[in-house]
Specification:
222 residues; alpha/beta; 7-stranded parallel beta sheet; 37% helix
């Protein structure tokens, strides 16, 4: 069994679609997969959230969400505004531990690495679990700075970085995106493991699962 945490360099960089692609690729390789989303914000009770999207795209149905808040804010702020208790590190670790019979457990964060998911950050969770973090980065301007800040934080905390994935690679990349694809490994010292085509989150499951294994480096397995 292995655990992999997925963090973004910021919000809206494609973490959920990358999580679904990782799940689909692992299933295609014959592995069992479970997914944990500790905190979901901006979603009302009963509405489909990120885990529903991962299930729709990948077919993985073993998925656990621990907390949900209606305001589209950082989870700790959203929890306080909703007068709900903050999610704790111990409860989150216990939830991930309960999934350890799966071959691969994917844990999707909220926003960037240091966003408070409750009383803790995804970096704190990675340290506690002793698990690596995969960083999902944007393609365009600003991504070099955001990606290097994120990978430096991981290094300073002694947390392994599994690599980088571009969460949405445009069909017609501009000059900045083309240069960034070459420069990301150089400035971060971290391998670029793949890129997800822009719009892939709108595909149906058959198309998505058929393509997903090809989006990652063939010699890498989470």
């Amino acid at each position: 069994m292995s655990i992999l945490l997925i963090s973004g360099t910021s919000t809206d960089v494609g973490k959920t679609v990358v999580t679904a692609a990782l799940a689909a690729a692992a299933r295609a390789a014959g592995r069992t997969v479970a997914i944990c989303k500790p905190a979901q914000t901006g979603i009302a009770p009963g509405e489909p959230g990120d885990l529903a999207e991962v299930t729709r795209l990948s077919g993985v149905t073993r998925a656990v969400e621990l907390a949900r808040y209606p305001d589209p804010l950082a989870p700790d702020t959203a929890a306080r505004r909703a007068a709900q208790p903050l999610l704790t590190l111990s409860d989150t670790v216990a939830a991930v531990d309960a999934l350890r019979d799966a071959d691969l457990v994917l844990v999707e964060g909220a926003g960037g690495l240091l966003v408070r998911m409750g009383e803790f950050t995804l970096l704190d969770l990675a340290q506690k679990l002793g698990a690596p973090v995969l960083v999902v980065a944007a393609a365009g301007l600003g991504t070099l700075n955001h990606s290097e800040l994120t990978t430096r934080s991981l290094t300073a905390a002694g947390v392994p970085c599994a690599g980088l994935v571009i969460g949405s690679w445009p069909a017609e990349p501009d000059l900045a995106a083309q240069c960034n694809r070459d420069d990301l490994p150089r400035v971060t010292g971290t391998r670029l493991l793949g890129a997800i085509p822009a719009g892939a989150g709108g595909w149906d499951r058959a198309r998505f699962t058929a393509a997903a294994p090809g989006w990652f480096a063939g010699d890498w397995r989470p």
